[in-house]
Amino acid sequence: MNYLDILYTPLDTSPLPAFNIDRLLSWIDDNKDKQHIQNRADSSKMVSKYPWNIIYPKTLGKWQYNFNIEFPELAEYFSSCFDLAPQDVLGVVLLPVKSEFTGVGFWHSDPDVLGLRMYLENKESNDFLLVRPTVEAYITRPPFTLSTDNSDIKLQDSIYSAKLLNPTQSYFINNVRAMHAVTTSSAGILRIAALIFVSPHVAERMQELIIRSAEKFKEYSIVWTPN
Predict the structure, then answer these.
(1) Is the separation of the CB atoms in 11 and 227 below 8 Å?
(2) Which tens digits make up the pLDDT trace of 33-73?
(3) In DSSP terms, which residues pair with 193 in a beta bridge?
(4) Could you give the CA distance from residue 26 to residue 30 in angstroms, rounded to a whole number?
């Protein structure tokens, strides 16, 4: 199996350590409007139903706003859970869902091909993430746009709903052969995802982790198949 055949799977990693989630939410609220990330297409300005209060605790290999001092257990875990050295993690993005958001967010794919993710908390246990595969079996990420309505990429009619292994799981999302959209059943459900961007030299090891995890969690994994 090629890792690109896998559209979604929980990852076989160590458990999330204990941390103060209320303090994390306060940190996010204090710092989320301060950041300006160069060369980033800010989709929050481009779509009408943007689900998150996005913030970047680590960019270009450097921690921001004392995140690693305020939350050393998380800073360490973002690399150790994947059996990586701290310097192998180049960036971390946190995506807490807005308290007022409900329904289905916009369809998109993320820019990182490896798609390493984790939930620091997810109380939306059912239909929390929808996945729609591409028609073609791409081997490199095509130029996705922010909506299936104006995308040149043909998508299959099938839409899959990811299943949650546990509320604080790590997982893989395929950004080459699929688009995805978050969904929330009602307002005020606590949910914080983390995107982990890693150095290219660890790609082979991470692909092995993705394949091994999909085989272990077969009842949870979603696999690309032809239309």
Answers:
(1) no
(2) 876 665 555 566 667 788 999 999 999 999 999 999 999 99
(3) 95, 119
(4) 6
Do 214 and 10 meet the contact criterion of CB atoms below 8 Å apart?
A: no
Question: In a 10 Å sphere around its CB, with 0-12 CB exposed, 13-18 middle and 19+ buried, how is residue 201 labelled?
Answer: exposed
- pLDDT of 127-138, one tens digit each? 999 999 999 999
Q: Which residues contact 153 (CB under 8 A, 6 or more apart)?
A: 134, 142, 143, 144, 145, 179
Place of tokens 């300005």: 45
Task: Please state the pTM of the whole predicted model.
Answer: 0.93
Asked if residues 162 and 122 have their Cβ atoms less than 8 Å apart, the reply is: no
Topology at the third CATH level for domain 3-31+50-142+151-223: Jelly Rolls (2.60.120)
* The CA-based dihedral angle spanning residues 161, 164, 169, 174, taken in that order and rounded to the nearest 10 degrees: -20
- Three-state secondary structure call for residue 74: helix
121 Cβ contact partners less than 8 Å away, ≥ 6 residues apart? 21, 167, 168, 190, 191, 192
Residue 116 identity: L
Could you give the strand order of the β-sheet that contains 129-133, starting from the edge strand earlier in sequence? 103-104, 178-184, 129-133, 160-161
Contact indicator for 91, 59 with CB cutoff of 8 Å: yes
Q: Are β-strands 116-122 and 62-63 bridged in parallel, bridged antiparallel, or unpaired?
A: unpaired
User: Angle at Cα 107 formed by Cα 101 and Cα 113, nearest 5°?
Assistant: 115
User: Which of 82, 98, 80, 222 has its CA nearest to residue 165?
Assistant: 222
